[in-house]
Design a protein that fits this description.
single chain, five-stranded parallel β-sheet, alpha/beta, two-stranded antiparallel ribbon, 201 residues, Rossmann fold
Length: 201
């Protein structure tokens, strides 16, 4: 009986240890990617959507929009694809909300491309690249493309892009303005990375 208990206890301890190590490694990757990389002077940026509240962009979406606006101000030759469909609890598509916000801030509408059908990160990137190809008139892979999203989301977004589309996207961070959200989302993203690697792609 004691021997059986020791075996069960040993197996459970090993599973817990593997889980903790996996989480630590995943969290390290998320943190390491949060500063962005290779984001200078893109032909196009893809701005990933977030929830639209009844009164306008949510805090997470507002953070991403401010980062996108800053990027477009810094690199005036870049164009932006604003991507995200409309959820059942949203008053409009995320893509339209983001595009309208940028244009109201004074960004030339010809620099703003709307993608309004995507439901997740895979569709965000795939649909956006199709629109980029239509816009530039050649294979989208000939363009330098940078993903703009919350800093905690960059690791997973880039991983999805690399494995789904076989393209090495640059990444540009949108700093999370609420510290409480930042801590929670960094933890969630570490778990999200594990799920993505195992089941998503």
């Amino acid at each position: 009986m004691k021997r059986g208990f020791k075996i069960v206890f040993g197996v459970l301890a090993a599973i817990i240890a593997i889980g903790i190590i996996t989480f630590i490694v995943s969290e390290s990757l998320v943190i390491a990617a949060s500063d962005g990389q290779n984001y200078e002077d893109a032909d196009y940026i893809i701005v990933l959507g977030a929830k639209v509240d009844p009164w306008g962009p949510s805090r997470a979406l507002d953070d991403r929009l401010r980062a996108a606006y800053s990027y477009l101000e810094t690199y005036p030759d870049s164009k932006a694809v604003m991507t995200g469909g409309q959820g059942p609890d949203e008053v409009m598509s995320e893509g339209d909300c983001m595009a309208d916000w940028l244009i109201e801030k004074g960004v030339d509408p010809e620099r703003v491309i709307r993608e309004t059908e995507a439901d997740d990160t895979r569709e965000n990137l795939r649909f956006s690249c199709e629109l980029i190809e239509e816009d530039c008139g050649q294979d989208w892979r000939t363009q330098k493309i940078v993903i703009v999203s919350s800093e905690y989301h960059l690791c997973r977004a880039r991983y999805v892009g690399k494995h789904l589309l076989d393209y090495d996207f640059g990444t540009y961070p949108a700093p999370t303005s609420l510290v409480a959200y930042k801590v929670r989302y960094f933890i969630r993203e570490a778990l999200g990375m594990v799920y993505t690697r195992l089941f998503y792609i």
